Amino acid sequence: MLASRSRTGWLLAGVLAVALAVSVFAYFDAKHPTIAKVAGAGVATFEANPKIALGRFVDGLGFPQRIRDGFHPIGGTTFTLDGRPGASVIWAKGEQRVTYTMLAGTGDVPAEELWGATTNVKVRGESIDLNWAGDGLMYFKRQGRTVVISGTPPSEALRHVMRGLATDR
Question: Alpha carbon of 58 to those of 22, 37, 39, 122: distances in Å?
Answer without folding.
Answer: 17, 24, 21, 23
